[in-house]
Amino acid sequence: MNYASFYRDTGEQFFRHGHSIFLNYISESPKPHLHVHDFIEISYVASGTGVHILGDKTYEVGKGDLFLINYDVPHEFRSFDSPSAAPLEVYNCVFKPDFIDVNLVDYMDFSDVIHYLSFRSIFTIEADHVDDVKILGGGNSAIEAVYRKMLEEFTRQEEGYVELLRAYLIELLIHIFRALKKSGKAGGAAMTHHAKLIEQSKQYLRANYALGAKLNELASQSFLSPTYFCKLFKDYTGTTISEYVQGLRIEEACQLLQHTDEKIIAIAQKVGYKDIKHFNEVFKKLTGMTPSSYRKMI
């Protein structure tokens, strides 16, 4: 699909107030206005009927339908072009992920936002391609109530409104996570594109932990910048790359201490440590004892 032919919305008109979030309630036109944008959009149909073109799919929509639209996904809502048709009324919440957390500044996919927040113990789910389906249908009073609160705060902009909007956005996302789980559109078997890249990197590190894999090499394999790769790795594993490699090395060292008579210095070198002192320090940090004490205990 040639995105160059679509109108691109950078969000500048929405984010003039200095914060990367915008709310509105709009009656959709029947005229075509297909576009892509540089932000995430969560749209909730409050009333009326019409269609939503999303990527290469077209949905007939009505009250209660909710859509998640990622960066660079062409879409448009249209009311039916008929005097007898009720106009399509839609709540829109558009935001950049860094509005939730500055660590999300490079994120562009709703699934990755879900995964990031899951590591903050909201929900343990992974979701893939959640942006190309209707999440709800038939109405959801809790979600609609959050939209009303958000729109009121955004319109009035009283002191502290930004902090309240951030809290309400988290509340909205939690309701969406619940809907995803109930609808079966999210589950442990699904993996995001980035999750797959990190899993591939973990497999590579397991096979090459003793060689001291370089960050630039890992990032280039995933076609990501080193900084962004580090962020993703920490989000998806809970550890830094260095910590993960240290864990692999010490795990293998424990196996060698248990099942071989090799000298400790030889084991250190075999798992990638040239400095025996550093090996001893890392081993004790991760196991609570020195390599020699570990071997004696075994």
TrEMBL record:
Q: Which UniProt keywords apply?
A: DNA-binding, Transcription, Transcription regulation
The HTH araC/xylS-type domain covers which part of the protein?
199-297
Q: Note the SMART domains from the entry.
A: HTH_ARAC
- Protein's UniProt keywords contain Coiled coil: no
Tell me one GO molecular function of this protein.
sequence-specific DNA binding
Q: Does Repeat appear among the keywords?
A: no
Taxonomically, the superkingdom here is Bacteria
What name is this protein filed under?
HTH araC/xylS-type domain-containing protein
Organism, scientific name: Paenibacillus apis
